[in-house]
Every structure is written in C-alpha cells, then in structure tokens.
Specification:
- By secondary structure, the chain is of the alpha/beta class.
- The chain has one domain.
- Helix content is 33%, strand content 11%.
- The chain is built from eight helices and five strands; from the N terminus they run H-E-H-E-H-E-H-E-H-E-H-H-H.
- Strand 1, helix 2 and strand 2 form a beta-alpha-beta unit.
C-alpha cells in the first residue's frame, strides 16, 4: 500500500478539534510535518500502518495535552481508525461522548489503577472484556490522556464515568518512553497502555503494529532533538514497511 493510500485509509479516525491556542513550548519554532507533527527531519508518516481491532479506544484528553508534540495518544488514532478523541472539561462533558456512552452496542471500561478503596466494587479484570465480546458487544477502553496528576483529577471529576467498570492495567512491562520524565518506569505512556490492553484482550496484530509505531516515534523524536537524521531503518521500521507492501 502506498503512503498516500495508507494515510487515506486511516483518515476516518474520529477526532475533535482542540481549543485553538498558539504552541509556545520548547521546540515551537522547529519545522514540523503537518501530518505527524514530528520534526520534518525525521517524519513519522512513511511508517504509518492501519490495523483492525475488536476492542475500540476512546481518548479523553486533557486540553493541555493537545498541544504537546510528545503526546502519544494521537499515535493510537494513526494506527486504529476506530479511535475517538474527546477533550475533557470539568464542567462541560462532551455531548457526543455522553451519547456514545449510552449506545447499546458498546461496553466501556475506564482504564485506571485500582489503588483507592472508594471504587473497589467497580474493578474488573481483563476477562470481563472477553465476556463483552461473547455477548456481541464492542469493548471500549476509555483512556484518560494526560499526566498522572491530570488523569487522577479527570477520573475524580467525571461523574458520568462512575457507572462503568474500572479496568486496571496489570503488567510487568517497563516504559520505553524517552521523551518525558516519569516518576516511575512502571508508568506507561498512553500509547504503551493501549498496546498492552490490545494484546491482553486478544488484538495481537494491532498491538504489534502500535508497539512498532510507538518505537519509531520514540526513536525519530529523540534523534530530532539532537538534530540528527536517522539514516538506517530500525527493526521496527522494517517491520512496518513490510506490512505496507502486503
């Protein structure tokens, strides 16, 4: 599949326009690709591959996260065309999200740690995802896309999510994310969380593609920070390019 065809195939990802605001952070004057938002020196677009999955992913994104080029939530939408992105506001829930939460064909799970006693009765395991599939429903992973502090605030202040089960991420995987500092190597970034959930719920090929796409993003962005162009394709790049020619 050509790069143009691949981009067109993935163009149906349901997103919302973030609030308009000038990007003033470090790197705001770097020449960036309008498609992937990475520095043009190491564009990510040639490695984009779409995947199908039984489970869907909906991102509830903190407003500030939309403006960060290092945000990995958007990588999920590049790979999975069924991804939906909603901006989180404390006082004004997204009307489309509220409607979808009531749609009978979906079985939403709020992905969040089970580290507080006040919602222990809502916590389920990944086997509950298999049960929804067996019942003919589409499982939906709702990811709170922001920093850990922002995600906790979003979880506490989104009463419309209180009726849905909480699915903790149970994995020994350590984060490979090199573009932001985290308090713990066990704190995975949004794309890593999605890949683990897809794998645990049986969408192995989608998980593989997202993992490789994240790895390329990680490598390309890190190289661009030192103004270095990656000349030799990495193993992940080779795997993605091979999938494009199928």
């Amino acid at each position: 599949m050509s790069n143009d065809s691949q981009a067109e195939a993935c163009s149906d990802t349901a997103t919302v326009d973030p609030p308009r605001r000038a990007f003033k952070a470090r790197g705001s004057f770097v020449e960036r690709c309008p498609g992937c938002r990475l520095p043009a020196l190491n564009c990510l677009c040639p490695f984009q591959v779409c995947a199908a999955s039984q489970a869907h992913i909906w991102l509830l994104t903190h407003p500030l996260e939309h403006y960060k080029p290092t945000n990995t939530g958007r990588l999920i939408g590049d790979v999975l065309p069924t991804t939906r992105v909603f901006t989180w506001y404390r006082t004004e829930p997204d009307a489309q999200l509220l409607a979808l939460l009531d749609a009978p064909e979906y079985a939403p799970f709020v992905v969040f740690p089970d580290d507080q006693p006040d919602y222990v009765d809502r916590v389920v395991g990944v086997d509950a995802v298999a049960d929804t599939k067996a019942a003919g429903l589409t499982p939906v992973f709702i990811l709170l896309d922001g920093t850990w502090r922002q995600a906790r605030r979003m979880f506490r202040r989104s009463a419309y999510l209180d009726r849905f089960p909480v699915l903790p991420l149970r994995t020994d995987r350590q984060s490979r994310y090199r573009l932001r500092k985290s308090a713990s190597s066990s704190h995975l970034c949004t794309a890593e969380v999605a890949a683990v959930l897809l794998r645990q719920s049986g969408d192995d090929e989608a998980a593989d593609i997202l993992d490789d796409y994240f790895e390329v993003f990680n490598a390309n962005y890190a190289a661009s920070r030192s103004h270095h162009k990656l000349e030799q394709p990495t193993a992940a790049m080779h795997r993605l390019l091979a999938k494009q020619t199928r």
